[in-house]
Write a structure and sequence with these properties.
Elements: H1 7-10, H2 24-36, E1 50-54, E2 57-60, E3 65-68, H3 71-74, H4 83-95, H5 107-119, E4 126-131, H6 134-149, E5 153-157, H7 166-171, E6 189-192, H8 204-223, E7 228-233, H9 249-259, E8 263-267, E9 291-294, E10 305-310, H10 311-314, H11 330-345, H12 348-369, E11 373-379, E12 382-387, H13 397-409, E13 412-413, E14 415-417, E15 423-426, H14 434-452
Helix pairs in contact: 4-11, 5-11, 8-9, 12-14, 13-14
The chain binds pyridoxal-5'-phosphate (PLP).
Pyridoxal-5'-phosphate binds next to helix 6.
């Protein structure tokens, strides 16, 4: 067996196109996909199929090397096939791949929970439970909050995305394509307006002063504080459009929860693990959630998710009340330990801040040139531009799609998001080289030049 060389070192960190995008081999695979894979799975934005990936590049089935501004939706923050992740995965997979933690436990699971306890916000005593994906973590966070409080109501927000299982769908705001015709959904979920500065009636400043009092008063009048088990919120909303609430909104919400014995759940599934320039996005304003749901960036691409929180809340659940066959799989735990080690050793939170410093001026420059960009927002390496008809707030998903396609054709993987599909988001791997990052931004600029006239 040849020795495995991890992705970043093995692959030239450059964009290199040898065919059109998608090339013939990817087109063949697309045709096979259509004949075998359920139609409901969202089609790949670039239409290319991966053969190899590492650092800031993805190599497709035709040998094209594309710049990655998506990280598999904020997952491979440490880069694909990151050396420490690969080494630990290989070592663990060679020893055992599954015993079920509840049957024959192993140290890796405990080590991941210890890391989560140390690294999530707050110095209080914590406990964690591990799961397989973000939606499962969200569901379990709500189960724990209901059990701990003996209350039922859960507060979620406009533009929220918390996953695709039934309770997670109920918490998610967007109908099409996530919820349409899948009802009925879980009950006792109440939706509040999100502090969305660009779209707040009355504008940005009104949002900063009005959003929190409005949410509190709606909870009071429509639900009753004493009926609320949990408030769940993404510190920066992900699929809903990278919506950043104004300063003070999250701390005020956390304070309100504390006053009323409500469990404050931070869904850090997309924002967590160094993505926004801190280990967790809540740290930016010193918010300490009662429970934190994590997944995505936690394990370098392997399936792992967690709920971490105050020991007294977590341990309020009776023995046997939480679990699952695969949760905290040993190979996924090994990957998480390799990921966390990489993030600490390479200061990937600092790298995320540096990515923001490089990207933001260029994105603002684009916004000055192209009035179709209504807003540049985000933090660290979680950035986005929202596109509207110039001078209005009317979403423009058509130009959003056209710019994205131009990026893809030129070899830059970008993703869109937003309730109205009018946001282009940027989630590069945190290990991406600065030359590649700047080249990606130049491709984006060219895409605007070629589509916006
Ligand atoms: C904030 C947030 N919560 C929950 C989820 C659901 O995670 P998963 O797809 O792993 O179930 C996502 C996925 O995009 C997310 O961004």
């Amino acid at each position: 067996m040849t020795e495995h060389v991890p992705g970043e070192a093995r692959l030239l960190q450059r964009r290199h196109l040898v065919t059109e995008i998608p090339g013939p081999r990817s087109r063949e695979l697309l045709a096979r996909r259509d004949g075998a894979v359920a139609r409901a799975l969202t089609p790949p934005p670039t239409s290319v199929f991966a053969m190899d990936a590492g650092g800031g590049v993805i190599v497709d089935a035709d040998g094209n090397s594309l710049i990655d501004f998506g990280s598999g939706v904020a997952v491979v923050s440490v880069g694909n096939a990151a050396p420490r992740v690969v080494a630990r995965v290989i070592e663990q997979a060679g020893r055992f791949t599954h015993t079920c933690f509840m049957i024959t436990p192993y140290e890796g699971y405990i080590a991941v929970c210890e890391e989560l306890g140390r690294r999530t916000p707050g110095g209080h005593e914590k406990r964690s439970a591990l799961f397989n994906c973000g939606a499962e973590a969200v569901e379990n966070a709500v189960k724990i909050a209901r059990h701990a409080t003996g209350r039922q109501a859960v507060i979620a927000f406009d533009h929220a995305f918390h996953g695709r299982t039934y309770l997670a769908m109920a918490l998610t705001a967007k109908n099409m394509p996530v919820k349409d015709r899948f009802g009925p959904f879980a009950g006792e979920v109440y939706r509040m307006p999100m502090a969305y500065p660009l779209r707040w009636p009355g504008g940005r400043e009104a949002c900063a002063t009005e959003a929190l009092p409005l949410v509190k008063s709606l909870i009071h009048s429509q639900v009753g504080e004493d009926n609320v088990a949990a408030v769940i919120i993404e510190p920066i909303q992900g699929e809903g459009g990278f919506v950043v609430p104004p300063d003070g909104f999250l701390p005020g919400l956390a304070e309100f929860c504390a006053e009323h014995g409500i469990v404050f759940i931070a869904d850090e599934i997309q924002t967590g693990f160094c993505r926004t320039g801190d280990w967790f996005a809540c740290e930016h304003e010193g918010v300490v959630p009662d429970l934190v749901a994590t997944a995505k960036g936690i394990a370098g691409g392997l399936q792992l998710a967690a709920v971490t929180g105050r020991a007294e809340i977590m341990d309020s659940v009776h023995v046997g009340g939480l679990g699952g066959t695969y949760g905290g799989n040993p190979v996924a735990c090994a990957a998480a330990l390799g990921t966390i080690e990489t993030m600490a050793a390479e200061d990937l939170a600092g790298r995320a801040r540096r990515i923001g410093e490089i990207m933001l001026p260029r994105l603002h420059g684009l916004a000055e040139k192209y009035p179709v960009i209504a807003e540049v927002r985000g933090r660290g390496a979680m950035l986005a531009i929202e596109l509207t008809r110039p001078g209005t707030l009317e979403p423009d998903p058509v130009i959003t799609e056209a710019v994205s396609r131009a990026c893809h054709r030129a070899g830059l993987v970008t993703l869109t998001c937003g309730t109205h599909r009018n946001v282009i988001r940027f989630l590069p791997p945190l290990v991406i080289g600065e030359d590649l990052l700047n080249e990606g931004l130049s491709i984006l600029e060219d895409a605007f030049a070629s589509t916006s006239g």
